[in-house]
User: What shape does this take?
Amino acid sequence: MSFSKSSQTSHISVETYTRIDLSAVELLREKNTVSHTIVTNTCEGVADCVDACPVACIHDGPGKNTKGTDWYWIDFSTCIDCGICLQVCPVEGAIVPEERPDLQTTPN
Assistant: This one.
């Protein structure tokens, strides 16, 4: 993992999160994991999760949610349960660390 250093601080960028070894991604896919869920009506459309996801399983939803904001959804069949989306999302409660189709609208 690479760090950007300055004389004052160091940080890990979203770009760093997306550089996951492909063999590690394949291992996670093979494990019997449970996807994360984006709560449709809590999501505020920030999209940090979209940029950070190493397997591109997060997609924009059509229209607006009940808050009147853009929203995203996780394709459960593609998610590898890495948890990066949960770490980068600034909206409290917008992503839960379990597969909850009752909380997430998934377009057909």
Observations:
- The chain is about 20% helix and 15% strand.
- The chain has a mean pLDDT of 80.
